[in-house]
Amino acid sequence: MPVLRLIKAYLRVNLQMALAYRAEAVVHIAVNLMWLGWELLSLTIIFNNTATLGGWGPGELVALLGVFRLVNTLMAAVIWPNTEYFNTSVRDGSLDYMLLLPVNSLFVVTFSRLTLWRLWEPILAVILIAAGLGLSGAGAAPLNLAAFLVLVLAGAVILYSLWIALIAFTFWFTKFDNNVTILQALLDTGRYPATVYPTWLRVIVTFIVPIALATTVPLQALRGELSGPQVALFLGISLLSLWVATQIWRRGVRRYNGASS
Amino acid sequence: MTAEPVVLVDNLSKTYRVPEREGGFAAAVRGFFRRTYRDVPAVQQVSFQIAPGEVVGFLGPNGAGKTTTLKMLSGLLHPSAGGARVLGFTPWQLKPAYLRAITLVMGQRNRLSWDIPAADSFLLNQAIYRLTDADYQRTLAELDELLELGPLLKKPVRNLSLGERMKCELAAGLLHRPQVLFLDEPTIGLDITAQARIRTFLQEYNRRTGATILLTSHYMADVTALCERVLIIHHGRLKYDGGLTDLSRQIAPFKLIGVALGEAVAADLSRYGTPVQTEEDGDKHFIQVPADAVTAVTARLLADLPVHDITIADPPIEDVIERAFHE
């Protein structure tokens, strides 16, 4: 399979680059653990003052934190490093080379750089989700678990699509280095359940910016709060967003005319 | 030309739309709210053909439209008008089969990852271009032999010198054995030895593989060593398409002689040739002399004056081209 071979080759290169900067990996893992501690601490503070947050108990919020971290891994391990690489390559013109490779340009742009030491985070996230669910006393039915997994994937696809659209805008506005800062800010709204926000904000967060969906909705499925059609709808939205993003990307590439003339 | 042309360019044109504003703060504010654009014709109705195995030099001053043409031919840019076929493909459709058959190497851009040795980037290319291990090893061995890559491949790219890096960049661009090479200033910034090395390599590569090469360069030596035929482009228009020997005979049948004289001497050099102003070398005076008179004039200079140093050089390519359009 050429695609698998390609993925293997990219993983190999990234592993080599990661090994070239060992100290960086160690520092980052430490900082990451500190963040996790801080997040758990803030949850403790919140629940010392109230029993539920938007109808969600402490255990469920720990699980939400887990889902948030799962999605955040995509952000930190794939989206950030590739955006940085992409923005640099637009500026120094090496994007020209990327576009002339005989493989899908979107693949090259999104998987060239992977922060491999981030990949321990999904494990941590799964532990958080399991612990949170255990804490809330809610066991998960197999069907709900399946819906949860599908929706996490769909959430990731939505996030990915938004990202593609944002970096593709660079083709129109050459100087758009903050493209992904916007995305991170949006993602951070997903740290708490969408139901804690006032209605108007919830509308924005849920419909205009479907990132909170990426974290809240899968957990709702796990709690058995979603119907089959709702799950299907969400899946549909994710596929649609991917299609729209691909179109934007293709138009962007067409527009692109290099760093110099 | 008996063989079917590899590159067929027909009235190719590209116009850029660039934002325009005057200097000054008020203009900047106005420009923020209301952009005005200007159409810049970068390439205008350029037509030419290149036969298989030909090495063609593409010359012109900065901003003449060379890079734009190369970018259109490699598929990066859509033309505003006109068409082109390379190996039977329309380049800007970016068909994978096309991209596997060509390469674009730009002297001022990097394709190799900075932090890892070139050998590792090469393996990535092997996967991207779907080369079998046997093919890959064979090509790599050949490139290694021609470019003497050996130890360079194992060092992180950031630790290589410019010349060493360029060798690796070229190798990376050729691993998939492309039939058509578009080279944009492949020797820029390199020292004389490295330039010569790259030149010999391209010559040998062309001889062995029969690849078609279209190259731009600022260095006359690149062009004279490699190309029998040149295309000259100026202000986006093709001004000359023909043999190199004809070109220099027609346009620049002269050489530049530079002489450094003792401090006290203020000799009138106009007796020997046409004095020329140059930016470099404050203490050296330059005169322009017909190519066939160089030996005689040099002998006279050495006999008549206390010459400390003397150089004989081809006129800069920019001058030759400038001359082509102003005479």
Structural description of this entry:
- The complex is a heterodimer of chains A (261) and B (327).
- Chain A is mostly helical.
- Chain A has one domain.
- In chain A, 75% of the residues lie in helices and 0% in strands.
- Chain A has helices at residues 2-20, 22-49, 58-92, 95-99, 105-111, 121-136, 142-168, 179-188, 199-208, 211-222, 228-255.
- In chain A, helix 3 packs parallel to helix 7, helix 3 packs antiparallel against helix 10 (211-222) and helix 7 runs parallel beside helix 11 (228-255).
- By secondary structure, chain B is of the alpha/beta class.
- Chain B has 2 domains: 7-249, P-loop containing nucleotide triphosphate hydrolases (Rossmann fold), CATH 3.40.50.300; 252-326, Alpha-Beta Plaits.
- Helices cover 35% and strands 28% of the residues of chain B.
- Chain B has 11 helices and 13 strands.
- In chain B, the strands form 3 sheets. Chain B has a 6-stranded mixed sheet with strand order 5-6-7-3-8-9, with helices on both faces. A 4-stranded antiparallel sheet of chain B has the order 11-12-10-13, covered by helices on one side. A 3-stranded antiparallel sheet of chain B has the order 2-1-4.
- Chain B is globular.
- The chains are: A mainly alpha (261), B alpha/beta (327).
Question: How do the strands and helices of this protein lay out in sequence?
Answer:
The complex is a heterodimer of chains A (261) and B (327).
Chain A: H1 2-20, H2 22-49, H3 58-92, H4 95-99, H5 105-111, H6 121-136, H7 142-168, H8 179-188, H9 199-208, H10 211-222, H11 228-255
Helix pairs in contact in A: 2-3, 3-6, 3-7, 3-8, 3-10, 7-10, 7-11
Chain B: E1 7-20, H1 25-33, E2 36-50, E3 55-59, H2 66-74, E4 81-86, H3 96-99, E5 102-106, H4 118-128, H5 133-147, H6 162-174, E6 180-184, H7 192-209, E7 212-216, H8 220-226, E8 229-234, E9 237-243, H9 244-251, E10 254-261, E11 274-276, E12 284-290, H10 294-304, E13 307-313, H11 317-326
Parallel strand pairs in B: 3-7, 3-8, 5-6, 6-7
Antiparallel strand pairs in B: 1-2, 1-4, 8-9, 10-12, 10-13, 11-12
